[in-house]
Amino acid sequence: MNVLWVKVTAPLASFRRPLDHNYQRTLPLPPPTTLFGLAGAARGLAEEELWQEASPLRDLLVATLALQKPGLARDMWTVMKIKNNKLAERSPYFREILFNARFMILYGGPEELLAELQQAFLDPTYPLSLGREDELIVVEELGRGETCPGAPLFSGTVIPGDLQGLRFKWVPRPGIAFEPPAVETMPLAFEVDKRGIRYPLNPRPFTFLPYDLEVELEGYQDALTIEPLEGRSFTWMNWSSWESRTSLF
Amino acid sequence: MNNLQQSKAIALGYLMKVSAGNINASHTEGNVMVAKKVTLPDGSSVPYFSGQAKRRMLRDRLEDLGFTLSEASALVSGQEVTPPVRPWEFVDEDLFGYLDPSGNRRRTSPVRVSAAVGLFSFQGDRDLGTRSFERFGQDMAAGGNMFETELYANMFKGNMLVELDRAGIFSDQEVGKNNKEIPEALEKIERNGRLFYVLPGEERQRRLQALLDALGLLWGGGRTARMLSDLSPRFFVYARLRVKHPVFLEALQARYLEGRYGLVPDPLRTALDKFKDFRQAVIFGLEAGFLGNEEEIRAELQNYGPVLSVHEAIAQAKEDIKKL
């Protein structure tokens, strides 16, 4: 399959776990909707265009890998609360932030779509960010490639499904601080109403493997690799062999 | 702004010096006011202050420059704060965006402001203070409560990216499709089935120039009563670009040698070379005597654009904006 790969640096990035409120932990890697949002920003798609059923990006497959271990900050924000129709109290909340993260972002799909997207990443309509508008990223390098089968060994990437339901084996390595995986149910798309409010669609469980955690998935058929990954494997987040192509909508 | 189709963005990179301060504090731990900082994979930490804090300071400096901010015109009702949504009137709504919680009107800021990140590790320094009981009607002899504030001496890198094809231009989605308040005098442009309202060229230039002035005057944050810091740039780089990329986001690195700060030229040169085909104007500003390797930096950078003092560079950048 044809792939567009984009290597990016994110000086600051935060991928909130869906149910966190006052203390917002971050996932170690961007979820699928963030990768669609990034492509949409590059192409200049408004939110309702990106998430409509006839979205020009609906045939994209997405994946990502961490390229280094990031730093971590706990950023405190204060929300002004309203009392007696006046901005009165301050309510603190914390947001974890990844610092100096580097990711390889992979898009798979039809040749024409990838060619357009490659051009869009070189000359994006909107500045590129992996979330909040101020958390811009730098595109280090990008290119095209072809996937080939990879070893079922994964680290620093996102696998569709709950790791507990997959036959996995932790591959220990000396000298690393163990960090557990995060399993979260994340949407694959959104529905946007007339007021611009988003509602999650097609939620699926995903396993987010931190950079230092390597697992072997016994009998896993969907491991892929491309040359710039230097032997590391990935799998498409919105693709699973037991369901064939996972529809965005 | 005839060149808008060619020039899509302005990228700004700058260095700020804090001699002793805690610009943007986090929470309190016991009686210690903690500075915002990031823990790196090797266990060390660097201080930072948020893009949000910098936006606040920029807003305040724009007000100093004579602009009226939108906040006084916001409506507070129930649990909602509704902004005025008149970006043609309020520079802060134009440049920094807004969100109207009661309807589908929101503007993503055409000015992206990065967090300011310290280039050197946090050393764990603290300032000790006493909150005297005298304030609460007791004798001075009664003493007071001690408190501590984490503080640092550091150099911070900052970045901004200004979308030239959005500053001073408001889509019907951003201001509302049937908004009767939109001044008739605004130019209207239809593109891809959407209607855009455009401020006059001179006003757009004036706002962008004011943003540069606000950066040149930057100060603010917390604890200014006792730890005031001048956050105006000591090193400044301006690039007008044909693409929207934050060119200098990872391009400013420094070292500290023999009591002086030194700017590492290679990442900056690499970033400028990488965007060679997309940059249309580059201007550098450097405060005399700030960098230990000033001569080296001047020699390296003059191949890319004029190297001036910071205030001259800002003045020249404002002139460059007039060309748009």
UniProtKB/TrEMBL annotation, chain B:
Organism field: Desulforudis audaxviator (strain MP104C)
Recorded superkingdom: Bacteria
Name assigned to this protein: CRISPR-associated autoregulator, DevR family
Keywords: Antiviral defense
Entry function: CRISPR (clustered regularly interspaced short palindromic repeat) is an adaptive immune system that provides protection against mobile genetic elements (viruses, transposable elements and conjugative plasmids). CRISPR clusters contain spacers, sequences complementary to antecedent mobile elements, and target invading nucleic acids. CRISPR clusters are transcribed and processed into CRISPR RNA (crRNA).
One of the protein's GO biological processes: defense response to virus
